[in-house]
Design a protein that fits this description.
By secondary structure, the chain is an all-alpha fold. The chain folds into two domains: 50 residues, Orthogonal Bundle (Arc Repressor Mutant, subunit A), CATH 1.10.10.60; 138 residues, Tetracycline Repressor, domain 2. 73% of the residues lie in helices and 0% in strands. The chain has eleven helices and no strands. The protein is elongated. The termini are far apart. The relative contact order is 0.11. The model has no long low-confidence stretch (mean pLDDT 93).
């Protein structure tokens, strides 16, 4: 195995360990030594990839956010109606969150923590630009409520985090019918 491949595998292990520990124990309990141990590397290895814990959290967040939005917008072309495009994006977001539970929970943790720095948070928002543009288009066409993108996200996307947590805890399985009803509630919450 090449040195480059070994290096990539170590970084992947560190990212995975960070996600796991943050989800299980929170940001503050996920120490660098615990992350290194779970990743199977010596603690000093972390500093070959990340400057400090803040840098680690920011970079893991941006890595996961990019993976999430790449998945969410994979088939999106902005050529359909606002409602059809929103349905496509919403269902891709739901699919990611419900099939990549650990990454979805990590993103949720990042959404609600002061641990993430503002620059990384703003960079993460940029990854959602196709959805934000769709909402602007819908508002211009008189189809979507004239609310801020934060409120639109809170009403239509953020509830998926609750379902993700419920699924992870094993208290809720989401059928196709449930998902369809949830999508309809999301659309109803933002449409005029």
């Amino acid at each position: 195995m090449s040195q480059r491949k070994k290096s990539q595998l170590k970084r992947i292990a560190l990212v995975s360990a960070t996600i796991s520990l943050v989800n299980d124990d929170g940001f503050h309990a996920a120490s660098m030594s615990k992350i290194a141990k779970l990743a199977g590397v010596v603690p000093g290895t972390i500093y070959l990839y990340f400057q400090n814990k803040q840098d680690l959290i920011n970079q893991v967040y941006l890595d996961v956010k990019k993976e999430f939005t790449t998945f969410a917008f994979e088939n999106y072309t902005s050529s359909n109606s606002v409602q059809d495009d929103f349905e496509l994006i919403w269902k891709r977001i739901a699919q990611f969150k419900l099939t990549h539970l650990d990454k979805a929970l990590f993103l949720h943790q990042c959404d609600i923590t002061p641990m993430l720095d503002e620059e990384s948070r703003q960079e993460g928002i940029k990854h959602l630009q196709p959805l934000l543009n769709l909402w602007i288009k819908g508002q211009q066409e008189g189809l979507i409520k004239p609310l801020s993108p934060f409120l639109l996200y809170a009403y239509s996307i953020f509830p998926l985090s609750f379902l993700t947590h419920s699924k992870k805890r094993g208290v809720c399985e989401i059928s196709e019918e449930d998902l369809e009803q949830t999508y309809q509630a999301a659309w109803d919450s933002i449409k005029l």
